[in-house]
Structures are given as C-alpha cells and as structure tokens.
Hints:
Blueprint: E1 4-10, E2 13-18, H1 27-40, H2 54-65, H3 73-87, E3 91-95, E4 100-102
Parallel strand pairs: 1-3
Antiparallel strand pairs: 1-2, 3-4
Amino acid sequence: xxxxxxxxFGPEVEITLPLDGLEPMPADVARxxxxxxxxxxxxxxxxxxxxxxxxxxxxxxPVAVGAQQFEDVAWARDYARATVSALGKPAVRIDVAxxxxxx
Length: 103
C-alpha cells in the first residue's frame, strides 16, 4: 500500500508528501514531534473544551504554518512521517480550508 500525506490548502495548492521507502517514525517520537510543533507554532485548539487530539494537532499545524513551511523538505518529510505514525494510517489527507483530516 502506498504511504503518503496530502495537504490541501485550497483548490490550487495541494502538496503531496510521499513516504514510500522512508523509515517509519516511532509512534512515541511522532507524538512528541507533533506536540513540539503545536507549541512552537502557537497553534490553538479547535474545540472549546481545550482538549487536543492527535488529529487536531495534525490539522492545526498546517493551519498555523501555511503552505510555505512545506517548502522546507526536511520539515515536510518529518511532518508526514509523524502524521502517519501518530495516526496509524498509511495515507492521510488534510484539507486546511475545510478543516478536515481523512484516511
């Protein structure tokens, strides 16, 4: 099965991050990496309760950093590796405009 993360910022900006052939990120490291990025980029929780799920972090990070951050190939690769490992899914689609994460 193909492993990739697709991040859609709008109808004209769609970034595909293929992961085939890359070493998987351990799940605990993936969660730590996402936590660190969530704090570093001052992401805000989407839910009024303040509870932040992994899927919320996966979505909030590209909302906060924008498409330009994905030009940093090493960062984008780490984001994709952390996303698939933390969510336990080989293919993940993030739609920033619609605020959705799907598998």
